[in-house]
Amino acid sequence: MWKLSFKNISFKNKIIAVILLVSFLTQIVGAIIYIIFDKKEYEQNTIRELFIMGDIIANNSIAPLLFNDPNEASKVLTSLSTNPFIKMTSIYTENKKPFATVENQPSIKCPTPVFF
């Protein structure tokens, strides 16, 4: 019975096999590195986008807070409902009391807010 082993393969085919193996491993390593960097870039872009949205909401919420108008503040928060990843938004007063809240999915419980 004839066995296929690396010793029985011609030198030309050994070189081809080594080149194919190295190329395959290089492609796998490259794909893994690409996926890792792409995931990190996605996370950074998401964080940057959330900070930008936070700044916009903060600037648009000044008047409703100054004039004590929670309905207008809710309208400002409603603009965030277009983002499917934002489930709930709130504006708090200086005393850390909820001023206006908009829930896109009421079934989800909001965690306790962190104040800085």
What's this, in brief?
The protein contains three helices and two strands, in the order αααββ. With 116 residues, the protein is mostly helical.
List keywords for this structure.
55% helix, 116 residues, two-stranded antiparallel ribbon, mainly alpha
Shape estimate: rod-shaped
Approximately how much beta-strand content do the residues carry? 5-15%
Q: How many domains make up the coordinates?
A: 1
Q: Numbering strands along the chain, what is their spatial order in the largest sheet?
A: 1-2
Radius of gyration: 28 Å
Q: What is the average per-residue confidence, as pLDDT, rounded to a whole number?
A: 89
Helix count from the secondary structure assignment: 3
Which percent bin holds the helix content? 55-70%
State the end-to-end CA separation.
77 Å
Largest β sheet strand count, sense and barrel closure: 2 strands, antiparallel
**SSE topology string:** HHHEE
Please provide the count of β strands: 2
Structural class by SSE content: mainly alpha
Q: Which runs of at least 5 residues are low in confidence (pLDDT < 50)?
A: none
How would you characterize the overall build of this protein?
By secondary structure, the protein is mainly alpha-helical. The protein has one domain. Helices cover 55% and strands 9% of the residues. The chain is built from three helices and two strands; from the N terminus they run αααββ. The chain has a two-stranded antiparallel sheet with strand order 1-2. A hairpin with a 5-residue loop joins strand 1 and strand 2 (98-103). It is rod-shaped, with a radius of gyration of 28 Å. 5% of the residues are buried.
